[in-house]
Amino acid sequence: MAVLEKIRVKFGIGASIIIALGLLSFIISPDDLERAFQSMSSKYDVGKVGGKSISYDDFKADVDKLTEISKISGLGTLNAQQQEQLRDAAWQDIIIKNLFIKNAEKAGIRLGEDEKVALTTGSMISPMISRNPLFFDEDGNFSTDKVVEIGQASKSNPQLRLYWDNLLNTIYNQQYINKYNSLFAAASVATPYEVRKNIEENNTTNEVEFIMLPYGFEQDSTVVVSDSEIKEYYNSHKKFFQQIASRDIEYVVFETTPSAKDIESVKDFVGRVYNGFAEADNVKAYLSRNRSEIAYEEDKWYTETELKGINPDLAAFVENNGEGAVSDVIQAGSKFFFAKVMGVKAEKDQAPVKQVAIFQMTAQPGNETANAVYQQATNFAAAAHGGLEAYRKALDTLGVYSHSYPHLTEGVDNLGSINNAKVITNWAFENKTGAVSDIKTIDNKYHVVAVVTGVHEEGIASLNEVANDIRQQLYYIKLGQKKTQDVAGQIAGLTTLEEIAEKLNTPVSTRSGITFSSMNNQSLDNAFIGAVCAAEPGKVCGPVAGAIGTYIFKVNARDTGAFYTEDDAKTAASQYALYSTQGIIPVMMQEAEVQDHRARFF
Description:
By secondary structure, the chain is of the alpha+beta class. It has helices at 2-10, 16-25, 30-35, 56-72, 80-106, 113-120, 127-130, 144-153, 158-187, 192-203, 227-236, 260-277, 283-289, 304-310, 312-319, 367-384, 388-398, 422-429, 463-490, 497-504, 526-534, 566-581, 584-591; strands at 45-49, 52-55, 204-214, 242-243, 246-255, 330-332, 335-345, 353-362, 403-408, 440-442, 446-456, 459-460, 509-514, 540-545, 549-560, 595-596. Helix content is 48%, strand content 17%.
């Protein structure tokens, strides 16, 4: 038990579970987890990893184990964010165990018993042990004897065993990751040609004069994209249309806010409270008795900034008055304030702070108001019942505003400024296009009626879902081709940029330092950069169709320097290889079609 107490004292939430989170989070980001393919598993499963279905009960058991470890570490009751962290940690551990380690072993990677010993008490001790105060001696130095002692003690102590096993699991997982990353990085070698080409591309710069004719935003009715062209593009680019499951919804919100009558009622109450405030012998008791939302604390001294955070007018009064001054009643919407300056304290070279007794009360919707708002929601829900057409008609008939939320994913827990809205997300994923919800009440304040306007299943999006996006993309390709042909016809026979600029009534611009290197962010059109770097110096070239306009240019000078060296090229290649390791697990997840449905349950 002494060891467990030491864990609690030394670490809190910083025990091995959180260490594990830190180690793995750089590999599996929340975005990558969200992109892990969803749907298709049993409604009782939280997902599928490496061909294995992960049941809710099994996943919950893993989460409970990590929760128990956090309690051993002295954390106590977990808040919502910490609970989410533990669920992510449990899911990451499942990914590592059921997918990553299996793939690593297929690649020939092993973790032998001698290596495990070396990681805990031998020649390559993990930082998770060597930097862990639990294994420090009385002088504050790391001790392998302490490691052995705690390892032995864990055999007879179930709680310590849980902590110890999790620590070892994290260390071994990290070693698998390190070895696989090293193998991957070592296999990513830049060839002599690639190094030489990289040096050349970074050291070769161009100075250019050019004319750019932007395409503009006005649609050209002569540029037509046919359905057959869209279909052909879709069929040849299907792998680019992978999507996670989502829903398109619209929804109406009936928010319960205090009415004018509610506000007036509170105003009358505040006026009665105010009358006795200035003469009250015990200000603290007076405020408490009259339900002030801000309690009086004798040792609380306010800065001007803090008071402005409560109310600017209140802050101005306190700033301009001394001890004993009592403000008038201040109203800000549905909030009411008044205050008394109880004391002033000024430190040398510092702005004075003030002791202030503040009364604050916020008007709340009364039963009559709440019932009236709910009745509005009831009327709309009844009129909208029956499908999307009925929903649209109800909007017009009752004159209410409909919000839209395209591509709502399973994990979404808010609708605009409305939090705790998972009830809407869950409903949307359980229904089909055209379904209209009953009234969903959130935080006893928002009454929401929603309709599903679109369903997007996990996998490759249908042609119908992406047709408009493809049409727009092909439109700009064809527009660029048309504009380029038009410009070529207008400038036929002209030989200088000056003549061309005069003909097209547009200025000539200049740009220097243009290189072909992808490492150089030049904020220029890629098609223009490529054409410049391939052009013959001194020759007018173009027109060239780019992403945003048509270009005509002349390379005035091309210089070859030596500032980018072979070492730079090799360092860049090494950095790229290291960066690539960050995508190992996400790619494995995608290839294995990992399904993550935790959002259905949490």
